[in-house]
């Protein structure tokens, strides 16, 4: 309602936080992989992009300060820091592996970074792990829906988020292949799970913030 004022409390680091407020920001992590065809070699059969994007491909820079993509140790400089939109890394390789994605928030959030695992897929289910049937024009796209949940966020960070006018993210090579999200029933299940986790976190935070008798 107009005119409502959120109540605040002072957190453990002396910063004002909004009591009973939850901010949920949907994101997508994904990879787009192309077979290189005749240009493929034993160590580079595919070119691929790994990314973190907004659900509607909006710019995430007002929330996210940095994303570190941890590639397979066989890559040169496997820990790749990206500090501006689009939050993505482009590479070539031959094998599938788990990519650890670490997301850092702006300083005024006073939130720890979060980590998300994403599996790089180079082959479609019907390819059987072989390049014989792969097309150089149709990529293998793997995306996962997730949410950034800020429970009782810092007041300054909440103001930054609420006052932001969403804008499209900068151009990405992978953008033409982004998937549409998602079946509503799946999102409802995920949202319900996130809310339960947030409630549990709020209970633990209140216990931690409570003064010792």
TrEMBL record:
It comes from the Eukaryota. GO terms for biological process: regulation of DNA-templated transcription. Keywords: Nucleus, Transcription, Transcription regulation. GO terms for cellular component: nucleus. PROSITE patterns: YEATS (PS51037). It is found in: Nucleus. The keyword Transcription applies. CDD domains: YEATS_TFIID14_like (cd16910). Pfam families: YEATS. The keyword Ion transport does not apply. Residues 17-164 form the YEATS domain. This is YEATS domain-containing protein.
């Amino acid at each position: 309602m107009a005119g409502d004022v959120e109540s605040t409390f002072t957190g453990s680091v002396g910063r004002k936080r909004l009591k009973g407020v939850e901010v949920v920001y949907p994101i997508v992590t994904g990879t787009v992989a192309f077979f290189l065809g005749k240009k493929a070699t034993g160590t580079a059969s595919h070119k691929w992009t790994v990314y973190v994007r907004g659900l509607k491909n909006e710019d995430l820079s007002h929330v996210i300060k940095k994303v570190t993509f941890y590639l397979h140790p066989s890559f040169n400089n496997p820990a790749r820091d990206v500090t501006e939109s689009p939050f993505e890394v482009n590479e070539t390789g031959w094998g599938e592996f788990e990519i650890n994605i670490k997301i850092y928030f702006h300083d005024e959030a006073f939130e720890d970074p979060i980590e998300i695992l994403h599996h790089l897929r180079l082959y479609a289910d019907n390819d059987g792990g072989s390049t014989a049937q792969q097309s150089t024009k149709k990529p293998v796209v793997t995306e996962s829906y997730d949410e950034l949940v800020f429970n009782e966020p810092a007041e300054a960070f909440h103001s930054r988020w609420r006052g932001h006018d969403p804008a499209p993210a900068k151009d990405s090579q992978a953008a033409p292949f982004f998937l549409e999200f998602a079946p509503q029933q799946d999102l409802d299940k995920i949202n319900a799970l996130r809310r339960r986790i947030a409630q549990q976190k709020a209970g633990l935070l209140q216990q931690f913030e409570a003064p010792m008798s």
